[in-house]
């Protein structure tokens, strides 16, 4: 019984944080590993719960009107295609090399965000242009691909990219990130289901906790806006970087 309480609390917290600024996997994966699940089963079970939590927060953001459906309907298909190819290519790139590359990129994003005080504080989006649409499609495909075969920091990269490409503030970037994340999550989830890598006894409890966490996290983010999201975004970005260094050392 205690283990299920631990899983529910961990799942709720992970989804709550993830719905605000991404990086919830830093919490949700260790919780499952502590509960005794082997790595591949933990990945699949985490994706099951994560997809449910993502759906919950995405619904809350859509309902609030913070998403840009015109952009999303153009980018989501490329995120799905990228995720499918990413899952298929998962074994072709060394995880050690990938850790180093992602560490450098995410640390650069965190430092740039910290030093640029005005970044993501004001929503300056005007319209879709050929330039920002092409950049958005490339970004959606690459990060869908990345999420399909690796994952850590996907939400962080997506949020940062949407701010830089479209001029969103953190709130609107986080809202649109959730929809793109939802697309890549469900794509990967289907593949985990087909490969039998989900512990459904745990996944169902985890999913319920993450649905609640995602819903309330998005609600808090919408209420507090970019002033809350930016510091949590920075904490999670540095957290992902530290996790990657730790993984490389052990």
Annotate the secondary structure layout.
Layout: H1 2-21, H2 25-34, H3 39-64, H4 69-88, H5 95-115, H6 130-149, H7 154-166, H8 170-194, H9 200-224, H10 226-249
Helix pairs in contact: 1-2, 1-3, 1-9, 2-3, 3-8, 3-9, 4-6, 4-8, 5-10, 6-7, 6-8, 7-8
Describe the protein's architecture and organization.
The protein is an all-alpha fold and 250 residues long. It has one domain. Helix content is 82%, strand content 0%. The protein starts with a helix and ends with a helix. InterPro entries: TM_pro_TauE-like, TSUP. It is a multi-pass membrane protein. Keywords: Cell membrane, Membrane, Transmembrane, Transmembrane helix, Transport. This is Probable membrane transporter protein.
Question: Radius of gyration, Cα only, in angstroms?
Answer: 17 Å
Low-confidence stretches: none
Largest sheet: none
Task: Give the terminus-to-terminus CA distance.
Answer: 32 Å
Structural class: mainly alpha
In a few lines, what is going on in this structure?
This protein is mainly alpha-helical. The protein is built from ten helices and no strands.
Characteristic key phrases:
250 residues
